Amino acid sequence: xxxxxxxxxxxxxxxxxxxxxxxxxxxxxxxxxxxxxxxxxxxxxxxxxxxxxxxxxxxxxxxxxxxxxxxxxxxxxxxxxxxxxxxxxxxxxxxxxxxxxxxxxxxxxxxxxxxxxxxxxxxxxxxxxxxxxxxxxxxxxxxxxxxxxxxxxxxxxxxxxxxxxxxxxxxxxxxxxxxxxxxxxxxxxxxxxxxxxxxxxxxxxxxxxxxxxxxxxxxxxxxxxxxxxxxxxxxxxxxxxxxxxxxxxxxxxxxxxxxxxxxxxxxxxxxxxxxxxxxxxxxxxxxxxxxxxxxxxxxxxxxxxxxxxxxxxxxxxxxxxxxxxxxxxxxxxxxxxxxxxxxxxxxxxxxxxxxxxxxxxxxxxxxxxxxxxxxxxxxxxxxxxxxxxxxxxxxxxxxxxxxxxxxxxxxxxxxxxxxxxxxxxxxxxxxxxxxxxxxxxxxxxxxxxxxxxxxxxxxxxxxxxxxxxxxxxxxxxxxxxxxxxxxxxxxxxxxxxxxxxxxxxxxxxxxxxxxxxxxxxxx
Length: 523
Fold this sequence. Notes:
By secondary structure, this protein is α/β, with parallel strands linked by helices. Helix 11 links the parallel strand 19 (329-333) and strand 20.
């Protein structure tokens, strides 16, 4: 009889398997769960000379936590330089830039909150005097906009507005001079391409360190919502194992032709030991704070009435092309018009579209949108930590732009679950912290404009990073539950994540993290 490589005993196991909801022990062999049951039986039947037995009295074992929206590779560059996430106002920003370390002569920063500008337009004149002429590139927290100094614009040879195939803008004043505010990816990339880069060795080491830190919060996997760094993943796996299991969705951008779509189809074959390409990511809009969320009615600045794809029908055609080839899609859609168009597109696919597509973010939607997710089999993928950038009194930039009525429809996690939707949860790191325990806690008690009325139960939050995450990725046949034959991706906390209070959960001891049967963290 075979024996176990790893045996977890004397513990509480929340399997999320309706046929066997709880157990006290499980066995792992060759990366798969091979037995689930009581401790005495499994110790007797599965212990061998090479079995590592871990007694986990007082702990709770769950299916492995998965971050359903993350950017661990791209984020190595996005989170380079000065951490500006704690900056609350313009004075603090100027102070941080004045003392920031230079990277090859540049000031590089990330995580800057729009609210730090206090309602002023984002403009390089607000910070130029503290930079002493240094080129600066500062990413705002949403990942869809940046502020570049005059010296940085000069290095990138940016002297005025440009036209892009996607919804992007180099913001200029009335005289056509760039203000330094870069909105959306194409505009940001013009300057980003001249910003100093990490070396290949630093990126390899940085990725392993980052994924190890993620594993220390209980994460066993992530849905990577960009296709950057496939070669980096392969390079790392030549030397070591990835601490997390990664499912990667490369981007499909406006202007793509049939050959480009076929290249994305071909990419689905790419994989390593612990990573694989498993879908394609679209953008239907940008962000509320940047004025690029696609809204059914303009925001308070008269912005937000255009889609990221200048021709939304071309987006729908691209989704249909990929769907016909068996490729799953994930669509970034924050505003109500963007969400509606993405749902309409899936509806146009007919019954075969069920369970094959998902929508990311969904920050503000009207009531009639909610039941369509379950009706069409579209998974909702949402990020509870994003609510921390808003305020309950609607005085923040996100809420002011939308107005009270739409701000009151913020991050409707509770309403989507009540409407029967699959609801996967994540962080969107580096837009928000990756700590899986914080994601769970904030799903229970959302912050800011969302408020406690949209809170999930402890079980629903757990499902969001386990069984519903697996459903959203089309992986429910092999992940998201604890059952014989499924992947041995496991998270062990020092408390029960279902019954613990949100505050306790946010600080819960992580006793063990297991990915593919390998222990990736011991607490």
